[in-house]
Here is the input.
Amino acid sequence: MSASQTLLTVEDVEVIYGQSILALHGISIQVDAGSIVALLGSNGAGKTTTLKAISNLLASERGRVSRGAIMWKGESTKALDPSSVVEKGIVQVLEGRHVFSQLTVEENLLTGSFLRKLSRPQTADELERIYAWFPRLKEKRRVKAGLASGGEQQMVAIGRALMTRPTLVLLDEPSMGLAPIIVQEIFEIVKSLNEKENVSFLLAEQNIAMALKCATHAYVLETGRVVRSGPAAELLASDDLTDLYFGGAKTLGDDVPAAQ
Ligand code: ATP
Here is the structure.
């Protein structure tokens, strides 16, 4: 698959929650194969809503796409239920490190392969693949996920998503609540997964310095609109970006603390 092939197109998408809360006002974004695209913006800008619109997860929150189209490899995703979206190759890692706290780390990972109906040896291979990416999880495989550290829980959430063998991972604020050194470790793994396994990422983040260093392209959201977009390196180099939207955080570089 060539790096320039378009995987995902979000075209002029408007989202309404309930009867009248307009959360997205016509968002357009594109993710090409082999890319890492950052979706930047502060609290309430619409990042999570955009990801849930793509995964078809809005219905459970009484939300819906009221205008526009979402296309995956040229086909509309409108009629797909959330599990069919996963089967097509798009998986979302929800904000806030959702793990099944009473299940072990390994049992959590196994829930990710459930749609694939793998044989035992295939499942074992897949687990080893995840443990190669996250060696800490192998050490903790028999520990209840609720007792793992925040960083490990984020790794479990990402590992479980990888068990679906995705083409595109929608990663919602992986830095939230984690120490900068753990955030860095996770972002390095994301970059390696992208380079070595050609997994594409759409990465929602408030930690712009980290996200822009990892991403190839970025979009900045503000109150449900794209207010800026371009190659990540260009945005990282532009002086006005952080002043305009993030209060100058970029100048802190890698020391920018994780959001919240
Ligand atoms: P955060 O980092 O806080 O998650 P975000 O950029 O992901 O921010 P969203 O969570 O997508 O932003 O929120 C966009 C807008 O939609 C906000 O005004 C928010 O209050 C509203 N919103 C989000 N979820 C719901 C919901 N379930 N019902 C009603 N309004 C919602």
